[in-house]
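Researcher: I'm preparing a figure for a lab meeting and need a structural model of a single chain. I don't have an experimental structure, so a prediction will have to do for now. The sequence is pasted below. Please return the structure as C-alpha cells so I can convert it later.
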Amino acid sequence: MFQMFVIAVLHHPQEMIMVIEAQIRCINKTNHTDPHERIQSIGGVNSDGKRWKLSIPEAIAGIESYKWKFYSVGGGKSVWVVIATHNGHKYLKTEADGVQPNNLLALPECP
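Model: Understood. Here is the structure written out cell by cell.
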C-alpha cells in the first residue's frame, strides 16, 4: 500500500525506528461543520505514481507508532502534520505556519 518516500531514523529510547515520510496531497471530507471532525481520509502519490489513501484513524495510529510522518505543502512551505485533540476527539492538523486556511482543509478531494 505504502512505498517509501524518504526514510528518517528516529532514536527511540529502546530502539532505532524507521519512519516513512509522506506528503499529503488530498483529503476526503465528512459532512461535519466542525473543522476538527471534517477530514475523513488523507491521500497522496507514491514515487511510482500509484495513489494511496488512509483513514484518519489509520493515519493517527501510524503516527503514534512512529511508522509514518506526514507533511503538507501550502503557501510555498512544507509543514509537518501533527495529532491534536479537541473534546476528546483526535484529529490531524498542520503545525502553525501562518498560512490560512488550514493547509489540510485547503487540499483537493482525493479520487
